[in-house]
Design goal:
The complex is a heterodimer. Chain A is mostly beta strands. Chain A has one domain: Immunoglobulin-like (Sandwich), CATH 2.60.40.1190. Chain A is built from two helices and 14 strands; from the N terminus they run βαββαβββββββββββ. Chain A is globular. The two termini of chain A are 22 Å apart. Chain B has one domain: Alpha-Beta Plaits (2-Layer Sandwich). In chain B, 23% of the residues lie in helices and 14% in strands. In chain B, the strands form six sheets. Chain B has a four-stranded mixed β-sheet. The longest helix of chain B has 17 residues. The chains are: A mainly beta, B alpha+beta.
């Protein structure tokens, strides 16, 4: 997929998922599949899900825009139930994450590997103005790192989630997060959790076991 | 699989438990008073036969069968009995004390953590019940630990205490599904799972668990499983009168119970009838497995011995003449320590 450029002024409006500016982005429809049962890290999870459908959400529309400093994703998908809470023990929130390699060549299938981190920009409906920055170097190793300049907004309307997740292209941190720049091509993966179906952790819809391509348009010459 | 070098364990003598809930309150006051913990009772005491806490927990799955993880259900807050809110303000401070009575706010509760107290089973004059106190079993083969995709649960090498690392926990609740004893709670404010910590900050200072030390009935023994001078080894291994609850769950629980004896039955003429026990054997076997019958025979044998004027090490141990001897060396007075909240 392609992240087109827009001006910084226009970028400022993108945090509203219904902003007209998003129409310029050229959203791409991505098919999702359930994460494989065999990849689930514990016997209990495999036993509990062997006869249940993993991956309740089967497609997402994803768009991306950047202004040379910041990158925003807009994700929209159909979900008849709005699950925001953890109010009861059986309630799980809806969520979405965009996964990027922090190190080129990091494996997506295993959520990274030691020394080859992947970086998720993770939004969850129980905390809908925050983007959690997650770093993983293998299944079960994910940890939240504090990165400033991450923003998110989510809204559920008429059976659809619309979520915007944004971050500065480059951030100052010692943690292995994705550092991006205009004109670059990298990998991308998407995961969506349907809380109403009990999806959490590795039980989710994913965009596949391979990285998809994400190309950030170069800046117009005048702005370089 | 984590193997601990030593294992702390507890024995609860069900013949002495009077269901007073002092253990429950001792634990509540000490550990579960923060927001999101209102409905938590890391220690609970239920009347048996009964549906237990959470309601019908024995039908919720979890644990292992032939070594394989068994899927389980998540108990709801209502299943646990939830935390009722009362109209204290109105009754005590609203100037309406003579008109308004104390009651639960909102919806009338349909269940509570001790809802079927003292109902028991059987018909007069042969009714029966006993109390079953429960905490986390700090299992040798913890289903919760194995179920967690984040390795957020640890079994301590030095003493076998099972703890949830709240920094690693993401509140996924696979541990709650996996625990066959349903002794894990989800904190919906902190969004992490929480459970009995075997009072590890006390134990580390040589102080017995609050539930054990506060028990007025001298029900609870504490100690290392392998300490031959401590009561645990004597009751579990030497005398074989203390057995785990639901051994078929396959987790190797480290809380053991001395099973309950009961007065004899009466026959239809009102005569004592010793041909059958008052608490049906099948019921006890359903809780503790077939070994419970051997344990009861040993207890009866020792009781007969003392009735005939003999001495019994086992009964002396169970009577717990010296309170401090119950704690396997963990008998330090907590008042001698300056405690600091972390």
């Amino acid at each position: 997929m392609r992240a087109r450029t827009i001006s910084s002024t226009e970028f400022d409006r993108l945090m509203d998922p219904s902003a007209a500016t998003w129409k310029q982005a050229g959203a791409e429809r991505v098919k999702l599949e359930g994460s494989p049962l065999g990849m689930q890290p514990t016997a209990l999870i495999r036993a509990a899900w062997q006869d249940r459908k993993i991956g309740a959400i089967d497609r997402v529309q994803i768009a991306a825009l950047h202004d040379g400093e910041r990158l925003a994703f807009r994700l929209e998908w159909s979900d008849p139930t709005e699950n925001r809470g953890n109010a009861d023990n059986v309630d799980f929130p809806d969520g979405v994450a965009v996964l990027l390699p922090a190190v080129q060549g990091a494996p997506i299938v295993t959520m990274g590997a030691p020394g080859n981190a992947v970086n998720a920009w993770y939004w969850r409906a129980d905390d809908d103005t925050n983007v959690r920055h997650v770093v993983a170097e293998g299944i079960g190793t994910s940890r939240t790192v504090s990165v400033e300049a991450g923003l998110a907004r989510g809204a559920w309307k008429e059976g659809r989630w619309q979520v915007v997740i944004a971050r500065a292209l480059r951030v100052e941190t010692v943690d292995p997060v994705a550092q991006l720049q205009a004109g670059e091509t990298t990998g991308i993966g998407v995961a969506i959790w349907d809380g109403g179906s009990g999806e959490r952790a590795g039980i989710k819809s994913i965009s596949g076991l391979q990285w998809r391509k994400l190309s950030l348009d170069a800046l117009p010459t005048a702005r370089r | 699989m984590t193997e601990s070098k030593r294992q702390l364990a507890m024995v609860m003598d069900l013949n002495k438990c009077i269901g007073c809930q002092t253990c429950t309150i001792a634990c509540k006051r000490l550990w579960t008073r923060d927001e999101g913990m209102e409905y938590m009772w890391w220690n609970s005491v239920n009347t048996q036969p009964g549906r237990g806490t959470p309601r019908d927990w024995e039908d919720m799955g979890g644990g292992f069968r032939e070594g394989n993880a068994v899927p389980g259900k998540l108990p709801t807050r209502k299943d646990f009995g939830d935390a009722w809110e009362f109209n204290h303000e109105e009754v005590f401070f609203g100037g309406k004390g003579d008109k308004v009575h104390l009651k639960v706010k909102g919806e009338e509760p349909e269940w509570g953590p001790n809802w079927d107290e003292d109902q028991g089973a059987g018909e007069y004059p042969n009714a029966y019940y006993f109390y079953l106190p429960r905490i986390c079993n700090h299992c040798t083969h913890p289903a919760c630990l194995e179920a967690c995709p984040r390795k957020a649960i640890v079994k301590r090498e030095e003493d076998g205490i099972v703890l949830i690392d709240e920094d690693r926990c993401r509140g996924y609740r696979f541990c709650m599904e996996a625990c066959p004893y349903k002794k894990i709670y989800f904190n919906h404010v902190e969004k992490v799972s929480q459970k009995c910590i075997f009072c590890f900050p006390r134990v580390e200072q040589g102080v017995a668990n609050a539930c054990a030390r506060q028990c007025p009935g001298r029900v609870r023994f504490l100690g290392y499983r392998d300490d031959k001078n401590a009561p645990i080894w004597k009751l579990v291994d030497k005398w074989k009168v203390a057995i785990p609850l639901h051994p078929e769950y396959g987790t190797d629980a480290n809380v053991f119970y001395v099973p309950p004896l009961a007065p004899p039955r009466f026959d239809e003429n009102g005569e004592i009838d010793e041909s059958n026990p008052r608490i049906p054997n099948e019921y006890l076997v359903s809780l503790f497995g077939p070994k419970v019958l051997e344990s009861l025979e040993i207890l009866k044998g020792e009781m007969a011995k003392t009735r005939a004027g003999g001495k019994s090490e086992l009964l002396d141990l169970l009577i717990a003449y010296r309170w401090k001897d119950m704690f396997g060396g963990f008998d330090r007075d907590p008042a001698t320590i300056e405690w600091k909240k972390a």
